[in-house]
Amino acid sequence: MILELDCGNSFIKWRIVTESGASAGCGGVVGTDEELVLAVQQQLLDLRACRLVSVRSDEETTRLVDALKRALSIECVCAHAAVELAGVRNGYEQYERLGLDRWLALVAAYQQAQQACLVLDLGTAVTSDFVDTDGQHLGGFICPGVPLMRNQLHTHTRRTRYDDRLAAQAMQSFAPGRSTAEAVERGCSLMLQGFVHTQLDMARDYWGGRFVVFLTGGDASLVVNLLPGAQVVPDLVFIGLAIACPLR
């Protein structure tokens, strides 16, 4: 069994797969290194190795790797930036500055599509990346996702605060909001939809209708109805991680 980790700034996504890459049915999201170790230990599985992608600092990543080695007796292989991987060429002028999670996601998308693709990752932040039919990464965009937009309004505008129950109720419609919760939740969602429409227009300018859209991230459900032909792949980063760190 192989432990796979996607280490973000706030959370760690984890899952366990077989040697062939099939899911072992174990996985989740945790907030700390300690929670991760405990969650994995509870699975009582024989782990051979770990591969991970991290956007954390080198110090934080090293601390996690050391904790896993002590607690689980496994070695970790970390994904690293590259100029080229699996037929995809990094489009950043300084290739090492492209976020590793974005890099692995677009590599995975191109490997699956084998044609031009638009990769949309809708999480705390929203990212888009364009890869042409020859595997050249053309670049992309980063903007705040719905959680960041909402939190900024809550932090800097006192009268916009409300609880999760009101937030969920607000999303039953996209009519103009008649309460603060409705106005904020629907407004943030519409901003996200506007961003997605813009990315689609740019992709059409590049490639006409000859491209594939990939959706990943926790808020993919907010825009999936706008993209009837999109491939929704929640584990896109993990697919790219297996390409970057094959563990033979």
TrEMBL record:
Q: How is the cofactor bound?
A: A monovalent cation. Ammonium or potassium.
Q: A single Gene Ontology molecular function, please? A: pantothenate kinase activity
Recorded hits in Pfam families, A to Z, give: Pan_kinase
Which chain positions lie within coiled-coil regions? none
Cofactors demanded by this protein: NH4(+); K(+)
Which parts of the sequence bind ATP? D6, C7, G8, N9, S10, F11, I12, K13, T124
The active site of this protein is located at D101
Intracellular or extracellular location(s): Cytoplasm
User: Which Gene3D superfamilies does the annotation name?
Assistant: 3.30.420.40
The pathway to which it is assigned is: Cofactor biosynthesis; coenzyme A biosynthesis; CoA from (R)-pantothenate: step 1/5
Q: Which residues does the annotation say bind substrate?
A: Y92, G99, L100, D101, R102, T180
Q: Which SUPFAM superfamilies does this UniProt record tie to the protein?
A: Actin-like ATPase domain (SSF53067)
Give residues annotated as binding K(+): D121
Task: Give EC number(s), comma-separated.
Answer: 2.7.1.33
Q: Which InterPro entries does the UniProt record give? A: ATPase_NBD, Type_III_PanK
- Specify whether Ribosomal protein is a keyword of the entry: no
Record carries keyword Transferase: yes
Name the family. Answer: Belongs to the type III pantothenate kinase family.
Q: How does it assemble?
A: Homodimer.
Q: What is this protein called?
A: Type III pantothenate kinase
Which gene is transcribed and translated to give this protein?
Answer: coaX
